[in-house]
Amino acid sequence: MENLEIPALIPLTDEGEQDCACGRESASASLFPSKESNQFSLLMPLNQSSGLYRKDLGHGWFLFHNPSKFSPPSILNSSACTLVDAFQSPISPERAIQMTGLPLEASASFLKEAVQAGLLVPADGSSELEEPPNPYALTLWLALTFNCNLSCRYCYVPSMPLSMTEGEGKRAVDWAIAKLKEQGLKALKIKYAGGEPLLCFDLLKAIHEYAQRKAWEEDLELREVVLTNGTLLEHETLAFLRGEGIAVMLSIDGLGSEQGLLRPLAGGGDSLPLVLRAIELAQSEGSKFFLSATVTSLNLEGLPKLADLAMDLGWPLSLNFYRPNGGGVALLPNPGQLIEVFREIGELVKERLGQGKGPAPNLDLIHPASPSPYPCQGGISFFAFGPGGAFAPCPMLLGKSSASFKPSPVDEDPHCWACSWRYLCGGGCPLLRDHHYCQAYRELIPLWLELKAQAQRVMITLARRLPRALHAFA
Ligand code: SF4
Ligand code: SF4
Questions:
Q1: Closest ligand 2 atom to the C-alpha of 397?
Q2: How far is the CA of 319 from the centre of ligand 2 (A)?
C-alpha cells in the first residue's frame, strides 16, 4: 500500500482524440478550474452520497463515481477511502479526521475536494443545485472535400465531386469565431475532414494559416486535427503537420481482410498496405497518430488485434460504434457479440497496462472525464461545414435535411433517466433512435471506467517511483 498518510483524490482525465467525439470532449470538466464549494466547514456534518459507485482497483486505490453529478469519476488512495468510509452516517469532518488519525490539514483539503466531486454531501440535504459544465471550445468540422480515394462501406458523405473553396473555408472559420465569442468560449478546435482532406492539402494549409492568424488576433486557443484514411501521407505532409502542431487521426478498421472489405480503394483493392505504410512512416519519424476504428459487424473479431497494436505503439485508439447513416443496418454489430469482443479487449488492455503499455482505447462516445446531459455537442458547440456552403449540426447530416435534429438532455428520456451511466453516455447518438447500443453501454461503461482508472493509477505509481529511482541513481 502506498502513501497511507496523505489522502489523495485524483479526477479521471480523458486521453486521446476522437473523430466522432462530436465535440463532447470540449465539455470536459477537467478543463475548468474546479468550482470552490462554499458548502464545507470542519463542523458541518456530511454524509456519503447515496448511489455512490465504488470499485476496488487493487494496490490500495479505489474508483468512485456519483452518477447524479457532472464531476468526473475520482481515484482515491486507501487513506482517502478510509475517510470517505467514516461518513456512512452523518458526522462532522473534524470528528471523522480525529477518528481516522489522519493528518488534519491534508484530510480537510481532501474532504473539501470530496464534497466538490459529489462523494460527500451535507447531511442536512442542502446540496447546491449543479449546472452542467459549459463547453470549453467550439469544434468546427470542416469537410474540405466530398471526394475520396477510398470507397468505404459505411461512408455517409454525399457522393458529389465537390470541394470547398478557400473563401468557404475562411468564412466557416469566421462564423465559428463569432459563434464562440457569442457563447463566451475560449478555444477553437478544427477537425479537417472529408472525404479525404489530404486530397486538398493546399486548401488545408491555407485555412490553417488563416485560422492561426485569426486565433492570434482574437486571443483564442487553437487546436487542429486532420482526419485521414492515411493512404496519401508522405514525409512532407507529416513534417508540415508535425511542425504546425496539427494532430493526425488515422482511420483503420483492422489488420486483416476486414480493412479491405470495409475500406476498399475507390478503384477496387485493399487499402491495408498503404495504411500500414503510413503507420511505419509515422513511427520512423517519431510522429504519433490517433487511431480511429468504426466498429461494425464485419470487423468486430479483429478489434483485439488492433487494440494490441495501438497499445504497442502507445497511440490512442477510438472504437466508434457504427451508426447506419450510409451503410445500412447489416453492418450494425449484434450487441451481445459486441459486448463479448469488448470484454476480450478489456482483458487484453488490463494485461498490457500491467506491462506498462497504454493508453487504453476509447469506448465510442464515452468520455469518462466529461459527464454531460447531452450525448454530443452537435448543434450546441459542434458544427459541420462542407463544400458549396453545406452546413449541419453533425457531420453525418451534411448535405441532408437536418431541421429536426436536436440532441435533448438525457434526463428527458424516460428510457435513461434512472440509469447510473446517463451523464457518461448521454443516451447515445441521437441519430440512432432505438438505443441500439444501450445494453453495450450499460455493460461496458463500468468496465471502461475501471480500465481508464487503472491506466491512470499505473501512471501515478510510475510518476512517484521516478524521483525515488533518480535519487537512488544519483
Ligand atoms: S442509452 Fe442506456 S446506458 Fe445510455 S444513458 Fe440510456 S439507459 Fe443508460
Ligand atoms: S448526432 Fe451522433 S454522429 Fe452526430 S454529432 Fe451527435 S453523436 Fe455524433
A1: 4
A2: 15
Take atom 4 of ligand 2 and give the residue whose Cα is closest: 394
Please indicate whether residue 324, judged by its CB atom, sits closer than 6 Å to ligand 2: no
pLDDT interval class at 401 (50, 70, 90)? confident
Taking all residues of the chain, what is their mean pLDDT, rounded to a whole number? 90
For each of the domains in the chain, give its residue range(s) and CATH number, in order of start: 36-122 (3.90.930.70), 137-403+421-455 (3.20.20.70)
DSSP line for 85-130: HTTSS-B-HHHHHHHHT--HHHHHHHHHHHHHTTSEEETTS-PPP-
Q: Cα separation of 290 and 279, whole Å? A: 11
Residue 78, pLDDT score: 94
Which amino acid does the sequence have at 158? P
> Quick one: which ligand is closest to 382's CA?
2
* CB 11, CB 30: distance < 8 Å: yes
Measured from the CA of 395, which atom of ligand 2 is nearest?
Answer: 4
* Residue that is written with C-alpha cell 463569432 in the block: 178
- Rounded to whole angstroms, the Cα distance separating 256 from 321 reads 19
pLDDT at 30 over 50: no
Ligand 1 pocket check: which of 338, 422, 439, 445 to mutate, most ligand atoms within 8 Å of Cβ? 422
- Whole-number Å distance, alpha carbon 442 to ligand 1 midpoint, is 7
Pocket test for ligand 1, best of 419, 434, 436 (most atoms within 8 A of CB): 419
How many angstroms separate the CA atoms of 453 and 462, rounded? 14
Residue nearest to atom 5 of ligand 1 (CA): 422
Give the residue among 188, 238, 236 at the shortest CA–CA distance from 210. Answer: 188
Pick from 20, 26, 17, 15: nearest CA to 381: 26
Centroid of chain to Cα 342: 17
- Letter string b/e over residues 235-266, b meaning 16 or more CB atoms within 10 A of that residue's CB: eebbeebbeeebbbbbbbbbbeebbbebbbee
